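Lab notebook page, bench 4
Experiment: in silico fold of construct C2
Operator: M.H.
Input chain length: 512 residues
Purpose: comparison with the prior construct
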Amino acid sequence: MTAEDMRAVPAGRRFLAHHGSSAAAFGLGAASVLGYAPFGLFVLPLFAIAAVLVLWERADGPRTAACAGFFYGLGFFLCGVSWVYVSLHDFGAMPAPLAALATLLFCAFLALFPAAGGYLHARVGFPAGVGFILLFPALWTLLEWTRGWIFTGFPWLVLGYAQIPTSPLAGYAPVLGIYGVTLLAALTSGLIAWLWMTCRERRNIVPALVLLIAIWTGGWALGAVEWTRPVGEPVSVSLLQGNVPQDLKFRPDRIEKTLDDYRSLAESSTSRLIIFPETALPLFLDNVPPSYLEALAAHARRNGGDALIGVPLRLPDGRYFNSMISLGTAPPQHYHKFHLVPFGEFIPLRPLLGGIVGALAIPLQDFTRGPTHPAPLEVAGQRVAVNICYEDAFGEEIIRQLPEATLLVNASNVAWFGRSIAPGQHLQISQARALESGRYMLRATNTGVTAVIDPRGTVVAAAPQFTRAVVTRSVQGYAGATPYVRWGNRTVLAICVALIVLAFALRALGRA
């Protein structure tokens, strides 16, 4: 049914159709979460978004399309990032009703992006062919890219991540980055929607199928390309997983046990590179006993390498950083986290929100940002690009240390999100960074998923979640630059702009 047909329907039936499409969109959003880790049904979001696109096309106006987009986003984010509630309530001590309201409002804000997509799609009003194949993929990609930087950004559950690492579309990650994978996935959804709506017109089927096959075959072919090359000798690495409960991590009576546990895990390793999780030592560095640090450094030297240790680092002027420091054969070095988590590591709009956030049981809420363009750490014969926790969700920031770095390291503590789907989602994000850069990604986490990821985004070794464990593996450093490392997001943004210009040019020429 077209928009013109809808306007001819009585008001009561339009009301039911409108609310029925909202309910359907909400269900499609919730189902789309199954396309991401830990579920991995990567084709599901493609068909769900195609169905949403059909709802937009059949909407009786831009507001109805926006409503369908909003409810798709609401179902998607409520199911996909429900772990925000766990962080706020279970570990942040926020009362349950307030935590639920905060989670709902956060998800409602995120849902505004697909709502904007629906509004713009219906407002511009291109015919299905041009709208689905040119305008929609560019629009969806640009909106997800915007979500990745506005208000410091939240690029979680970008469409492209569902394709990592097993879908053929993952082959585009080293060339165009995760937003390029998003663009090709959205184009796939547009083609599915177009086939759905024009299936009776046989002349449309063959071109659409040819384009679909070309997109997916191209991704498969790119996946076989060796974008980077091995450099130097392999290095043995050990990733420590202390499994310290988040509600006990910073308790004064528990700190000594935590230090002892991590020292024991480190000393069980003979690897040249030993990596601790984020804030593995729950003290400021100046409060850690010097004898403890010297014992770790001495063990690393005996192994002929270094340890990278997560610990808050405080300066004499009172500023403090979420840091990784190195101890061992190389001169001491450090990395300070740059991309901080709003409300978790710094308080935006402090005069307005400081009192509310200060009431939460979240330690160290006022970290200082580190340098925006850090140098890799030279440890264990490698040049290591370190990032901490949430930072690996920002691919264009990770490549700032490339192509100089030979390995990627992510130190995290996702114990804040309990036994939710967040750790699996975060692992998938790290897999995308390995693919984009053509390098190993080494993830050391407090409770999991601690893993070694190869340059093709495949997990080659991992520890079970919520166990005390050490993951040991020999890994290879890599040199060279993928196209994404060279150009970042500029290429895919240029393609999106070109698609939009082409769509309007065809309209001006009377072909759309």
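Observations: The chain is about 50% helix and 15% strand. The mean pLDDT is 91.
Next step: discuss at group meeting.
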